[in-house]
Amino acid sequence: MIKIEKHKRINDILLAPLERPALQWLSAHMPAWVTPDICTAVGVLGAIITSTAYILSNIDKNYFWLASFGLLVNWFGDSLDGTLARYRHIERPRYGFYIDHVTDTFSQAMMFLGLGLSPYVSFNVTCMTLIAFYMLAILTYLRTSVVGEFKISYGKLGPTELRLIAIMLNTAIYFIGQKAIQWSIANNQLVFSIYDIVLSCIAILLFGFFFNTAWKQARMLAAIGE
What we know:
This protein is mainly alpha-helical. The protein is built from 7 helices and 4 strands, in the order βαααααβαββα. It has a two-stranded parallel sheet with strand order 1-2. β3 and β4 (188-193) form a beta hairpin. α4 (93-116) runs antiparallel to α5.
């Protein structure tokens, strides 16, 4: 098994040319009292804001703007904590790895379940997408322990791109509203929204990344006899 502090981090995402310089600039300009732990807490706060706003969209769809703001706050805290620690050379590899992913797990559950409790997306579809997200996360942690590679991007997509997709989805819901689609199967009427289709496509993509990566890794480990 590979020691956590020795792992290689891979984050090859589409938005990297924009995100990395932005995070470096933010790290260089953060006040001394802003610590990585504070950034982590800010990320969790952003997730709570997003989840609460999704639930409040049952009252007024304007809360989707608050949900998008929460996603930005979540990105700021979640993306900056590790970068800030590395910039200041105050890394605590095992503690940071543990706290970061414990809070990530909580934040992801909050945001997905909040979305599922909104009137625009099926709770079942949202839970399916969350399961797919968690399966890929678990695979990432397993590969970190087994091969020492912490890979958080798949097909050029990572958490930052998923947050951007969520913001785009929020904006679409605000301007388009509820658009239901009816499908008749064996005299049964199935009703789902266009947003259910988008989330289902994301879930299928995540499941695909999971099974493809898991299969390739298993074959590689079998080939080297470990």
